[in-house]
Amino acid sequence: MSIPVTTQTVLAVEDLRKIYNEGTDAANMAIDSVSFSVEKGEFVCIVGPSGAGKTTLLRCISGLAAPSSGSVTFEGKRLTDVPAQLGLVFQDYSRSLYPWYTNGRNVALPLAARGVPKGERAARVAEVLGNVGLGHVEKKYPWELSGGMQQRVAIARALSYRPELLLMDEPFASVDAQTRFDLEDLILKVRTELGITVVLVTHDIDEAIYLSDRIVVLSKNPSVVKEVVPVSLGESRDQVETRSSPEFLELRNHLLSLVMPHA
Ligand SMILES: Nc1ncnc2c1ncn2[C@@H]1O[C@H](COP(=O)(O)OP(=O)(O)OP(=O)(O)O)[C@@H](O)[C@H]1O
């Protein structure tokens, strides 16, 4: 399948197939053929039934896993490794932050690895912790914070080196409902302020609609793209008003019909 690629295309996934344990008796095709592209500044969510291959797809997009065939192109170059200009946020924040380092040091870690001059690092750490509303926790440790705050620190760390693309795998699945809403609004705010491109995997259809400009719907395993659904809810979104609007409810019905097992 050929997908349109423009000068503004940050990510292009073409005919991606992933077979685990290929060539053995335990071979398992997680992804059959997936193609889509992401434009600069877009917020794209990936949804699909459990086991559809969402995490597998994200691992291939990030360079953490190699596709069995097909390609991933990031910023015009075919991906062979984890690119330096990629930010990654996973569901399990408790395993992504080092408990023996302060939050500030945790956020600073990728800066040193990317050669940001020492004199610039402190200002960057303060800036991104400010972006996520946590300027006051720099000298505290992750274990002194709530789960939602720890995930904010993990987001700040991924933003500290100003990534071209932020990839998030179920980033809000381990927090309570109220914190989840707060983190969704936070990522929308940060995305607008910093003008970043975001690809987020979620099993939550309402979350995907609330956040996205477009939603890539995967079929059941081994997955193909069932549909790419545009979301025209405007720039400014509100947890109560947006979620109760007729457009939102119409999108939810459509997406449910796509991901329900009988569909
Ligand atoms: N490391 C692995 N080795 C072998 N098979 C794997 C591996 N990781 C995932 N799989 C298989 O690939 C398929 C897709 O799994 P994946 O975790 O990508 O789906 P998912 O859509 O993210 O699932 P969920 O919504 O339940 O989190 C499943 O059949 C799974 O068992």
TrEMBL record:
This protein's record includes keyword Transport:
yes
On the tree of life, the source organism's domain of life is: Bacteria
What Pfam families does the record tag this protein with? Answer: ABC_tran
Keyword Ribosomal protein assigned to the entry: answer is: no
PROSITE patterns, from UniProt?
ABC_TRANSPORTER_1, ABC_TRANSPORTER_2
**Which UniProt keywords are given for this protein, alphabetically ordered?**
ATP-binding, Nucleotide-binding, Transport
Q: Where is the ABC transporter domain?
A: 11-245
Enumerate the PANTHER family for this protein: ALIPHATIC SULFONATES IMPORT ATP-BINDING PROTEIN SSUB, TAURINE IMPORT ATP-BINDING PROTEIN-RELATED
Q: What is this protein called?
A: ABC transporter
Q: What is the gene name?
A: ssuB_3
